[in-house]
Amino acid sequence: QVQLVESGGGLVQPGGSLRLSCAASGRTFSDYEMGWFRQAPGKEREFIAAISWSGGMTDYGDSVKGRFTISRDNAENTVYLQMNALTPDDTAVYYCAACSICTATNHAEYDYWGQGNQVTVTS
């Protein structure tokens, strides 16, 4: 089992920045690929970013490329999502997730999920 706890969400103005953190516990963190997804009311869960177990490979959804950055610290068992140039369209509940072997963009293949963290972008 892997337990994931997200933090860092909140309210921010358009153009602002936030950094989400996801702390993992349980099994060996570096055994897992990590991903971030988001879900806005009435919309499907959307792939945001993923990072390989070593941190050497990353992937991003088209809507956040160039604005968001995923990173991980295996010594701290934590994955991060740095979000810049936020717009109201980024408003959603953000989830981190872990998978041992998966297609990074497919939320159905992830094994473990955090509880979700609300991000609201509004003036």
Mean pLDDT: 95
Order of helical and strand elements: EEEEEEEEEEE
User: What percentage of amino acids are in beta strands?
Assistant: over 45%
- What summary fits the major beta sheet? 7 strands, mixed
Number of strands: 11
* Uncertain regions spanning at least 5 consecutive residues: none
- Global morphology: globular
For the record, give the distance between the C-alpha atoms at the N and C termini, rounded to a whole number: 40 Å
Structural class: mainly beta
Tell me the helix content. Answer: under 10%
The radius of gyration over CA amounts to 13 Å
Number of helices: 0
Task: Describe the model.
This protein is 0% helix and 50% strand. It has 123 residues and is mostly beta strands. Strands 2, 4, 5, 6, 9, 10 and 11 form a seven-stranded mixed beta sheet that branches. It has a four-stranded antiparallel beta sheet with strand order 1-3-8-7, with no helix packed on it. It is globular, with a radius of gyration of 13 Å. The model has no long low-confidence stretch (mean pLDDT 95).
Give a short summary of the structure.
With 123 residues, this protein is mostly beta strands.
State the main characteristics.
single chain; 123 residues; mainly beta; 11 strands; 0% helix; 50% strand
Write the layout of secondary structure elements.
Blueprint: E1 2-7, E2 10-12, E3 18-26, E4 33-39, E5 46-51, E6 58-60, E7 68-73, E8 78-83, E9 92-99, E10 112-113, E11 117-121
